[in-house]
Structures are given as C-alpha cells and as structure tokens.
C-alpha cells in the first residue's frame, strides 16, 4: 500500500530542491511521476524554482477547486501506471485536496509526497499543512539553520528588509518587496519583541497625525 508523506521545514531548507531530486530519482528508475504545485504559488509561474538555481516545469498547477482524484482518473486513461505524485508548496493545498491525496495513496496505490511549510510567519498553521500533519502516514522534518547556528523552526516576514508580524497569511516570497528569513524560536521572539517596541513608540506619532 502506498503512503502519503509530508516533508516540512522552515524556509531555505531545500524543500523544492528535494522535491525535484525525488522526481528525478523516480524517473531514473523508469517510474512515472507527476509534479504539481498549488496555483496560488506564483513564484516561477509554471515551474518549481529552487534557491540554488535549478527548476522544473510542473505537470499541473492546482487551483483550490481542482480535484486530485479526478485529475488522476483522467491521467490513468493515457498512463498504464502512475508511481508517484510530488507536490511542492503543499501548505497551500485545500483541506479537501489533502483528503483526496490520502485516498489516492490508499485506494489507488500511488505514493504521494508533499513538501511544504508547517506554519506561517505568525506561527499559525496553513490549512493544507494542518491536514497533512493530521493524516499523513509519514511526517519528516527537513532541517536548516538560523543565522545564530541553532536549528531554524519558524519563518519571519520582512517588507523592505524590516520584520513584520501583521498581514495576510499568504504573500509570495519576492513579490511586493516581501522576503522571508528562517529563524530559531529564540530569534523569532527577539524579532517579535523589537517589532512590538517599535509599534509602541509609533503610537504617539500616529495619534498626532489623526489630530
């Protein structure tokens, strides 16, 4: 029986690189693999793009309303067998899409390997990640380091290089002057407390402007 596996980490850990490597490994063994990513991830358009410069065109950009089961049913009309589905940025999947991926692994015997973040820049789980953590057969952490050399476990969002802890859950890296940094829990709170102190200092200025 095939498995649904969730590979998670903070950013900059090489998730996309690993996803492409796994796809390559299947193909080296003459396996048939499908590579998908959610369409909300506009970085690279129809490609998975890694920070070390390698990229791969995806077979499908999943809209939130797309049914993985129906996509596989159509594919099986022209493919004798599909060995694996690999999904990058899987935190952006809808909860029901994760449920369908679990069904595909169990009832259609196709391995599903999802790569993504566990939580956002406010330490709130993404819906797709929360469901994957709840039902995946295997959960594996891909480790990376904070600048202090401790293991990075969280992500902070920066706008023009300045940390922020407000805003929409989804904002794509590299768009609208937004970047991200992977940090350990200790450094996360250092950034957060500095941000709070800055906001407190700005309050009198904001009140004066309203007057």
Model description:
The chain is an alpha/beta fold. It has a domain at 4-143: P-loop containing nucleotide triphosphate hydrolases (Rossmann fold, 3-Layer(aba) Sandwich). Helix content is 33%, strand content 24%. It contains 5 helices and 11 strands. It has helices spanning 15-28, 68-75, 95-107, 127-135, 185-210; strands at 4-9, 33-38, 47-49, 55-57, 60-62, 84-87, 111-117, 138-141, 154-159, 162-164, 178-183. Strands 5-2-6-7-1-8 form a 6-stranded parallel sheet, with helices on both faces. Strands 10-9-11 form a 3-stranded antiparallel sheet. The longest helix is centred in the last third of the chain and has 26 residues, at 185-210. It is elongated and about 65 Å long. The relative contact order is 0.18.
Number of separate strands: 11
Chain-averaged pLDDT? 90
Rg over CA atoms: 19 Å
Read across the widest sheet, the strand sequence of neighbours is 5-2-6-7-1-8
Number of helices: 5
| CATH homologous superfamily annotation of the domain at 4-143 | P-loop containing nucleotide triphosphate hydrolases
| Straight-line distance between termini | 67 Å
CATH architecture of the domain at 4-143: 3-Layer(aba) Sandwich
Q: What does the overall shape look like?
A: elongated
Structural class by secondary-structure content: alpha/beta
Report the order of strands and helices.
Answer: EHEEEEHEHEHEEEEH
Helical percentage: 25-40%
pLDDT < 50 runs, ≥5 residues: 205-211
Sheet of most strands = 6 strands, parallel
Oligomer: single chain
Look up the CATH topology of the domain at 4-143. Answer: Rossmann fold
């Amino acid at each position: 029986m095939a498995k649904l596996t969730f590979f998670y980490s903070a950013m900059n850990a090489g998730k996309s690189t690993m996803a492409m490597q796994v796809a390559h490994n299947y193909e080296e063994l003459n396996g048939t693999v499908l590579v998908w990513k959610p369409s909300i991830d506009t970085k690279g358009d129809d490609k998975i793009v890694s920070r070390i410069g390698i990229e791969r065109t995806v077979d499908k950009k999943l809209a939130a309303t797309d049914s993985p089961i129906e996509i596989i049913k159509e594919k099986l009309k022209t493919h004798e067998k599909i060995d694996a589905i690999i999904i990058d940025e899987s935190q952006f999947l809808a909860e029901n899409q994760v449920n369908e991926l679990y069904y595909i692994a169990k009832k259609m015997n196709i391995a599903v390997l999802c790569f993504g973040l566990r939580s956002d820049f406010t330490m709130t789980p993404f819906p797709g990640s929360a469901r994957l953590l709840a039902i995946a057969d295997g959960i594996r952490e891909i480790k990376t380091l904070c600048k202090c050399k401790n293991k990075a476990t969280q992500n902070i969002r920066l706008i023009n290089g300045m940390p922020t802890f407000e805003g929409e859950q989804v904002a794509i890296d590299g768009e609208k002057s937004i970047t991200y940094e992977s940090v350990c829990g200790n450094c996360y709170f250092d950034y957060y407390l500095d941000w709070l102190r800055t906001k407190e200092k700005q309050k009198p200025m904001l009140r004066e402007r309203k007057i």
